[in-house]
Design brief:
With 96 residues, the chain is mainly α. It has 5 helices and no strands. 78% of the residues lie in helices and 0% in strands.
């Protein structure tokens, strides 16, 4: 029974950690909300501002997680192992 608890605990922690990561949309909402508050907007003015702000805010560049997936897939396709894989991954993740 004790052996079953550890994997379940680890899985639970991993699932919780994913829930706390802010998405790009949440970050945009936070920024736009702060701007609207700073401008003391209320009611319909605030709604209109938020709508425009959320549409106008450019999407962020590829996240580190997306870069990691792409680089990892490429390294796997190229069948890189060991030091060659480490070097490739380092170079790939540094690129913008």
């Amino acid at each position: 029974m004790k052996m079953l608890r550890v994997p379940l605990l680890v899985m639970g922690l991993l699932m919780c950690a994913q829930g706390f990561a802010a998405t790009a949309q949440q970050n945009k909402m936070t920024t736009c909300n702060a701007d609207a508050t700073a401008k003391s907007l209320k009611g319909d003015e605030r709604k209109a501002f938020m709508s425009t702000c959320l549409k106008a805010t450019p999407a962020p560049a590829a996240t580190q997680q997306e870069k990691m997936k792409t680089c990892n897939a490429t390294a796997t396709t190229q069948a890189l192992k060991g030091d060659a894989r480490k070097t490739f991954m380092s170079d790939c993740l540094k690129k913008k």
